[in-house]
Write a structure and sequence with these properties.
Helix content is 65%, strand content 0%. By secondary structure, the chain is mostly helical. Helix 3 crosses helix 5. The longest helix is centred in the C-terminal third of the chain and has 19 residues. The chain starts with a helix and ends with a helix.
Length: 206
C-alpha cells in the first residue's frame, strides 16, 4: 500500500527563479487591468496554461490568480487539445525581442521603485502596466532613453546591477541575431515572464 501511495504522490515542481509571491504579484497586475480588454484576458489565460504546463496545480494557480478552481480548470482544459509544447525557459539569457523588451520593462520598474517614483521612466512604465502604451519600436526606444538617463543621473543611488542589466539588454536589442529556437509563447507572455524574472534577479543581486 505504501508503494502504491508513493507512485501517486506528485512532488512540488521546481519554481526557481520565480516564487509564489512573485507569481501572485504578476497575476495581480494582470487582474488590475483586465478591464482594459480582451488582450489582457487572453494573456492571463495563456499564463495560466503556461504554469499548468510547468507542473503547478490548478488549486495553486487559482489561489494566486484570485480565480475559482473551476475557472482555472476550464482554461487548462481548453489547452489540452492543442499540440504539447515544451515549457518555457525561465532564464534571463535569451535574446528574442519580446524577452528583451520584458527585461527592459522590469528594469525600468525597479528603477522607478528604487527612486520612489521620481525616476524619468516612471510615467512610461505606469502607462505600459495599464495598457496605455504598447511595445512599438518607438516606445521601446523612448523607454531605453529614459532608463539610460535615470542610470546616468542616479549612478550613486542605483545598484551596479541595474547598469549591468541595461548594458546587456541594450547590446542584445541592437543586435540583429535571430532567436534560436523560436519561442512558442506569445510576445505578451514572453515580455511578462521576462519582466518578472528580471525584477527577481535584480533584487537577489541587491
Amino acid at each position: 500500500m505504501a508503494v502504491e501511495e508513493d507512485t501517486r504522490r506528485t512532488p512540488e515542481p521546481p519554481t526557481a527563479p520565480l516564487t509564489e509571491a512573485q507569481v501572485e504579484r504578476m497575476f495581480a497586475d494582470m487582474n488590475d487591468v483586465i478591464r482594459a480588454g480582451e488582450e489582457m484576458r487572453g494573456l492571463r489565460a495563456e499564463m495560466i496554461r503556461l504554469f499548468a504546463d510547468l507542473g503547478w496545480t490548478q488549486d495553486r494557480i487559482a489561489r494566486l490568480t484570485g480565480m475559482s478552481q473551476p475557472a482555472v480548470s476550464k482554461q487548462v482544459t481548453k489547452h489540452k487539445g492543442a499540440d504539447p509544447s515544451p515549457p518555457p525557459r525561465l532564464s534571463l539569457d535569451q535574446h528574442d525581442t519580446p524577452w528583451l523588451e520584458g527585461r527592459l520593462w522590469g528594469l525600468a520598474e525597479e528603477i522607478s521603485e528604487t527612486l520612489h517614483d521620481a525616476a524619468h521612466c516612471t510615467r512610461h512604465v505606469n502607462a505600459v502596466a495599464r495598457g496605455r502604451k504598447h511595445f512599438t519600436p518607438q516606445n521601446v526606444d523612448e523607454l531605453r532613453r529614459l532608463v539610460e538617463e535615470d542610470l546616468r543621473l542616479h549612478r550613486a543611488t542605483l545598484p551596479d546591477g541595474h547598469r549591468h542589466a541595461y548594458d546587456e539588454i541594450s547590446r542584445a536589442l541592437d543586435s540583429s541575431a535571430p532567436a534560436t529556437p523560436t519561442p512558442t509563447e506569445s510576445p505578451s507572455a514572453r515580455r511578462t515572464l521576462a519582466r518578472q524574472i528580471q525584477r527577481a534577479n535584480l533584487r537577489e543581486e541587491a
